[in-house]
């Protein structure tokens, strides 16, 4: 892109709606690399630490009427499995598959 | 040599609007055929034609602007209004789903056990993956702002790095959400809790994918020198959309996860 310089200001349109006060590229680079990304790393560590505990036993199956509703079959597979069905954690209306 | 006594862009005749309408008809009727008659032909045709219309229409906008110079400041102003109005309409779209959520959750019926989450529903822990997802989207808002400043300052290398980081964060969010969807103990069919949760977060996820695609196109254009420090509205529009997606997530996190 090169350095166009301040002389090209005549074509500048108004600032974006979400204009934030606060410096230029150097500032946002610092905020990204020293603030935002370390925060993500911390949250990643938090998830990994919390998931070290072995998975709790899945709840006993109770055939509640307000859960596992099947008013009409799903248009895929055998029509009884939701799109993100997980055999370990999701029971069918008749109970767990596994 | 042709001249115009105004600063607007009188667009050449184009087939994409009518083809887009046809794609919408094919897609909607295709959904009906799929749901009720187990046929996916029309739906496939609809989604394919929709993709082709989008690619060719937006390719033409890039040709008209970057390569033919039709996007005067006046034209750009119109595009800014347009994008703001579109994002506003999307905000109203999500408002509906938030309304549905609050309608059912603030006064849970006896059928749900008179409580929220309903009896038998084990919600996701908001302090695990959902918190990470919040950090990811907020971080991507910071990196996209870094990108914008890099573009206005003519720093090509940093702009490319920052935008790439933004897109990678977006992909990471999508991957984590997909994993959450698979691991959750409740499904969309688990009372109105599942309906409101998966419809709202599902549409949000779709918008993350759309926003990531928009940003990816911007990255390709950035690499190919389409943007100047003073004229890069395509990128600004993508950044606005991305911030919108972030804000919707914050509302989702605060109302549905917490």
Q: How would you characterize the overall build of this protein?
A:
Chain A: Pathway: Energy metabolism; oxidative phosphorylation. Chain A: InterPro entries: Cyt_c_oxidase_su6a, Cyt_c_oxidase_su6a_CS, Cyt_c_oxidase_su6a_sf. Chain A: It is a single-pass membrane protein. Chain A: Keywords: Membrane, Mitochondrion, Mitochondrion inner membrane, Oxidoreductase, Transit peptide, Transmembrane, Transmembrane helix. The complex is a heterodimer of chains A (98) and B (258). Chain A is an all-alpha fold and 98 residues long. Chain A has a domain at 23-55. Chain A is built from 1 helix and no strands. With 258 residues, chain B is an all-alpha fold. Chain B has helices spanning 16-37, 41-67, 73-106, 129-152, 156-183, 191-223, 233-257. In chain B, helix 3 (73-106) packs antiparallel against helix 6 (191-223) and helix 4 (129-152) packs antiparallel against helix 5. The longest helix of chain B is centred in the middle third of the chain and has 34 residues, at 73-106. Chain B has 7 helices and no strands. Classes of the chains: A mainly alpha (98), B mainly alpha (258). Chains A and B meet through helix 1 of A and helix 3, helix 4, helix 5 and helix 7 of B.
Please tell me the CATH architecture of the largest domain in chain B by its name.
Answer: Up-down Bundle
How much beta of chain A, percentage-wise? under 5%
Rounded mean pLDDT score of chain A: 83
According to CATH, what is the topology of the largest domain in chain B? Four Helix Bundle (Hemerythrin (Met), subunit A)
Please give the most extensive interface between any two protein chains, plus how many residues each contributes. Answer: A-B, 52 and 66 residues
Largest beta-sheet characterization of chain A: none
Q: What is the CATH C-level name of the largest domain in chain B?
A: Mainly Alpha
Overall geometry of chain A comes to elongated
